[in-house]
Amino acid sequence: MQISRTAAYVPALSQAGARSGAATSPSATTAASDSPASSDTGIQRADFTHMTRQGLFDWMNGQIKSGQMSLDDSSGLLGMTLKMPADGAGRPSALDDSERVDFMALAQDGMAWARQHGEQSQLQVLHKAIAVMQQHQGEPVHLDLRA
Predict the structure, then answer these.
(1) pLDDT (tens digit, 0 to 9) for every residue of the chain, 147 residues total?
(2) Which of 5, 67, 73, 84 sits a CA distance of 20 to 30 A from 12?
């Protein structure tokens, strides 16, 4: 299974500035391109309250490739990249690059559902996903090398 669409230079940039604001995914501009967290300097910032499913996937993949996130830590985020039909009819669609989603609220709703239904493992996965998003909210995700 291949989950990478990230350029080869990204891990080197990520490791060089780990935790200090290095780029993690060149295709993650969808993660925050219209976000209030972006700046005029060409650096896009993670905004998990206004991100596309493709943007979340690209950001997560960059974190995994750079060694900043384990596959275990990504499991709750990966599930949120799928758009499941509410009525159960039809197939789930993945990696939508147009609809902006509030993944923080989505995870909170999922945690409420898990508590209500006694799904402790799902609750733990979503709790970890929220912690990861909170930790990285506002961090740079893209460096515009043309600037």
Answers:
(1) 444 443 333 333 333 333 333 333 434 444 444 444 444 566 788 999 999 999 999 999 999 998 999 998 899 999 899 887 666 666 666 577 788 999 999 999 999 999 999 999 999 999 999 999 999 999 987 554 555
(2) 73
Asked whether residue 30 is domain-assigned, the answer is yes
Q: Which domain holds residue 59?
A: 10-143
d(CA 83, CA 62): 21
CB 147 within 8 A of CB 41: yes
Measured at the alpha carbon of residue 67, what is the angle toward residues 74 and 121, in degrees to the nearest 5?
Answer: 25
How many domains does the structure of the chain reveal? 1
